[in-house]
Amino acid sequence: MNPLASRLGRLRQTLTLAELSGSLGDLGTFLPLTAALARRRKISLAPALFWAGACNVVTGWMWDVPMCVQPMKSVAAVALSGSVEEGGMDALSVTTAGILMGGIVLVLGITNLVEVVNWVVPLTVVCGIQVGVGIRLASKGMKDVMELAWGGGYDCIGLAVGCAVMCLFWLRDNENRHAADDGQRRGEQYEAMLSQGNDPDAILNVEMGQGRQQSLNIYQPLHQQYAQPVHPTTLTSSERTDALHSAVSLEPQIPQTSSSPSSLLHQLWNKSCCCLHLHPSKPHPVGIYLFLIGSIFAAITLSTAGPDSSYDLPLRFFGAPIAIHALEGATPTDWTIGFFRGALPQLPLTALNSILSVCCLAHDLYPEKRHVALEARGRTDAVVTRRQVSISVGWMNLFLCPLGAMPCCHGAGGLAGQHRFGARHGTSVVILGLFKMGLAVLFGGSALTLLDALPVAVLGVMVAIAGLELVGTGVSMLVESVEKEKERMTGSRILRGTLAKTILREKTFVAMVTGSVIIATSRTDYGALAGWVAHMIYGNGFLDFVAWAIKKIRSTRDV
Q: In the 8-state DSSP scheme, what is residue 172?
C-alpha cells in the first residue's frame, strides 16, 4: 500500500473524541505565552500561529505521538521582562535567539552529541526535572487564577474552583473500575453456567459475541473495522480461558431488562447529561468540556462588549500575512543580544526538558510504541529518539523563525497535558496544528482578540492539570527505576526489603534535590546541576564513573 495512503488511513482510524480532547491539553500553556508575546509586539501572531501549527502537523504525522510544540519559555520570559534597555529583548532579538538555538540544537542532533548530555545526566535527575517543572507549571496555573477576583464577573476564582472540582470528577479512572466490576460479574455468570452443566464452548461463543457488540467509546476509532469471529471449538482449555477474559475486557454493554420508571429516568439522565454520568464506561473528554466552557464565556464577552471595551472589534477575516521577513533590519547587536540573553539561558532548558525529559516521558507513556531494537539495548528513548527530537527542534527554529515563527520547542509538560486529556496518537497534534493554521488564516488580524477573550480561570485549571500529570509521571518513572535497580542487584547479600528501601531513599533524595532547586530558583539548569552533584556524592555516581573508566581502560588494553 502507498505509505501516504496508509498514514492517512491510520489518522482516520485514530480520529476519536479522546484525540480531539487531548489536542486541547496544551492550550493552557501555549495560549497565554503566545498572546503575551504578541500583545507586547515581540512576535507577529498570524505567522507564529501558522508555523507552530505546521510543526504540529509534521511531528504528529511522522511520530504518531502527541508531541506538543510550545514557545521557548526562557526566551519568552526574557522578552516579556521589558525593553532592550531594561534587559529584555525586542522582536528582532527574539528571532535571532530562535535561529541561534535552532542551529546549536541541530548540530547536537546531527552529530549525536545529545547522547553525551544524556550520559552525563542520570535518570533520577530527569525524574526530578519532571517533578520540579511539573510543580512549577501547576503553581503557575494556580497563581494566574489567584490574581482574579472571587466574583463580580464570570472570569473569577469561583469559575476556576468549579472547573477544578468538575475535572476531579471527570478525570476519575472510571474506565478501569467499570471493566473490573463488569469482568467480576461476567466471571460469576460463567462459573454459574458451568455449574449447571452447560457446554463451555457454547458459553464462550455467547460471551465473545456479546463482547463484540460493545458501544462506541471515545478511544475507539470513529470508523471501526471489526475482526472476524473466532471459533472456540478450535481452542484449548487455557486458550478458551484467555479468550473469555479478552471478551470480558471489551466492556460489553449489557442490555437493561428493567423498564421501571426509575430505570428509564436513569438512562435518560445518562444520555442527556453525559458529562455528569456517575459511572461512565468510557473516560470523559475533559479537554473538550473545558474548551467549550471557555468558548461559551468568550463568545458572551465579545458579543456584549461595547465600543469602549479593550477588545479590537469587529472581528476581521483574512488579510494577515502568514509569512514575513522577520530579519529585516537586523544588526550585529540584535544577534549578540539574541545569543547572550535568549539562546544561552534557553540551551540547558531545551536540552534537559525538551529533549531528554520528553523522550523519557514518551518512552514511559507509550510502551506499545517502543522500537524493539532500541528497547533491547536499554534505551530510554525507544519511542522517539533524542536525536530525532533534537533535529526537530533545530530545523523548526533555524528555518522557520526567519519567516515569522516564534522560537519553539517540544516539552514534557505539554505532552503530559495532552496525554492526561486523552491523546494517545499523533492524530491529536495534527488536529491541533490544522486548528492553529486555520485560525491564523481566517482570523489572523483578530486572533489576539479571540485569545484574550478566553477566561483565565479555565486556562489556569488546564495548566495546573498538565503540571500535576507531569509530576505523577516523574514519580512513576522514579519508582520504576528503583524496581529495575533492585532487579539488577538481586544477588546482593543485603536483604531485599532493606535493599529496596535504600535504593528508593537514595534515588528519591537526588530527584527531590533536583526538583526543589528548580522550584526555588525557577531555573532548570541549576536544578539539574544540583541533582548531578547530589548523584555523584550522595548516590553512586562517582563509583559508577570509576567502574566505567576501569572498563574502558581494560577494553582499550585488550584491543
A: S
Q: How far is CA 201 from CA 61, 196, 197, in A?
A: 44, 14, 12
CA distance 150 to 159: 9
H or E segment at 188? helix 174-195
384 and 359 Cβ atoms separated by less than 8 Å: yes
**CB atoms closer than 10 angstroms to residue 365:** 21
Q: How far, in Å, CA of 243 to CA of 227, rounded?
A: 14
Contact 478, 468 (CB under 8 A): no
Write the burial class of residue 225 (CB in 10 Å: 0-12 exposed, 13-18 middle, 19+ buried).
exposed
| β partners of residue 70 | 409
| pLDDT given for residue 380 in this prediction | 85
pLDDT tens sequence across 86-129: 778 899 999 999 999 999 999 999 998 888 888 888 888 888 88
C-alpha cell at position 428: 491529536
- What are the grid coordinates assigned to 95, written together? 528571532
Question: Which residues lie below 8 Å from residue 312, measured CB to CB, with a gap of 6+?
Answer: 446, 448, 449
User: Measuring CA to CA, how many Å separate 139 from each of 142, 239, 409, 511?
Assistant: 5, 50, 21, 19
